[in-house]
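Tokens help. Consider this.
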Amino acid sequence: MRHGVKLNRLSRTSSHRKALMSNLACELISHKRIQTTLAKAKALRVYIEPMLTRAKNDSTHNRRIVFSYLQDKEAITELFGPISEKIANRPGGYTRIIKLGKRIGDAAEVALIELVDFNEIYGKTAEADKAPAKKTRRAGGKKKAEGEAEAPAAEEKTAE
């Protein structure tokens, strides 16, 4: 049974797994999207989302914590610069995983993991199609329906 198991070990030792996640995270930060196996993409999402949350608050403490995971100054500069500006008002869910099918060589499930705010294809259509949210309640609908039924009756009385 998997009680309390939250980490996919990816058939690697701890040091190898940390190095793999650090390298994948640096590549994702620099390129904004990478193609990898589905298992690595899911593990990377768990690894990088807390760092993206920390990047929203640019402080020395947060920079040092993220640097302890990534060990790459260029990635830290990119993360706390343009990326943090784009994700500033997003409450979470900074990454998207898109399944691409199976790889020809070994039939491994391949996926594309990307930063959500840096995909112009999905972002622009979603903002353009989104209508302003209606602020109605279920109880409000009945009252409005009754009010509309009374209005034509009042007009008929004035016409006579």
Notes: The mean pLDDT is 86. Helices lie at 14-31, 38-55, 60-70, 73-86, 120-129, 138-159. The first strand starts at residue 33 and ends at 37. The CA atoms of residues 54 and 113 lie 20 Å apart.
